[in-house]
Amino acid sequence: MAHKVKITRKQIKQDDRFLATIKGVTRSVITTATDRTWLEANRTALIAGGIALIVVVVAVGGYFLWTGHQRAGAESLMATADGIFRAPVVSAEVLQKNPVLRSIGAYTDASKKWTDAAQAYEKLAATYPRSPAGALAKFYAGNSLYELKKYEEAIADYRKYLDVAGANAPFAGLAKQSIGYAYEAEKKLPEAEKMFQELSADAGSATAFLSLFDLARVYEKENQLDKAVETLKKAEDSDLVKSRQFYEYRMQAEMKIAALEARRGAAS
């Protein structure tokens, strides 16, 4: 518990003498030739400076208040959209029997789920376009549209994510990879080839390594078997396949190379 501090009369008198001394010194310092104090001479400037300081403080406080409100609103919409995106799709009979599935918003129609998810993410991106959540929403909207086989719209959202978030964004590689998949699904193989070539050029990254398999697949579809084999050999020789996590990909590359070489031999 805090205790009050008692001040004696003697201390008050001592403080009074001290203050009187200070006042005398201060008066002698700030008195000008015209017998006006420095405070009086600079009153206007001081008032202006004080007002400016208040404006800055209010502006900074308002900015943080606004950004906090923006962040909270964006996070709320993101939570709603994520809930739809992750909701399971089950049969009507299963949903009817399982109250837990109903409570988490499970769907019985996959198309309805992905449509709702895309709309929820697009709403977030439109409402908070400059927020990190708004940028990320474009990536997930693209994923939802991809599931709906609306590939052109998905590509547009992936590219918007890359434009806003930047080339070094956390999901930039996945966005480019998804663009390649969308082009491939539309049978626009030259565009898919270009995207996978761009991704595979980033030597050493996991996304680049996996893109070698994507690129080889596109080459095979284009009947460029020599290029497909050459690309898979790059994957086979990658330092990543030395790790246990990626070793199985080396086996896949070896088997695919053998199959492609058999096709080349049969065609010659």
Give a verbal description of the structure.
The chain has 268 residues and is mostly helical. Among the domains are: 70-75 and 82-157, no CATH class; 187-268, Serine Threonine Protein Phosphatase 5, Tetratricopeptide repeat, CATH 1.25.40. Helix content is 78%, strand content 0%. It is built from 13 helices and no strands. It has helices at residues 9-30, 38-41, 43-86, 92-97, 99-103, 110-127, 132-147, 151-165, 172-185, 189-200, 206-221, 225-236, 244-267. Helix 7 (132-147) runs antiparallel to helix 8 (151-165), helix 9 (172-185) runs parallel beside helix 11 and helix 10 packs antiparallel against helix 11. It is globular and about 75 Å long. It starts with 8 loop residues before the first helix and ends with a helix. The model is unreliable at 1-16, 18-34 and 62-66 (pLDDT under 50).
Ordered list of secondary-structure elements with their pairings:
Elements: H1 9-30, H2 38-41, H3 43-86, H4 92-97, H5 99-103, H6 110-127, H7 132-147, H8 151-165, H9 172-185, H10 189-200, H11 206-221, H12 225-236, H13 244-267
Helix pairs in contact: 3-6, 3-7, 6-7, 7-8, 8-9, 9-10, 9-11, 10-11, 11-12, 12-13
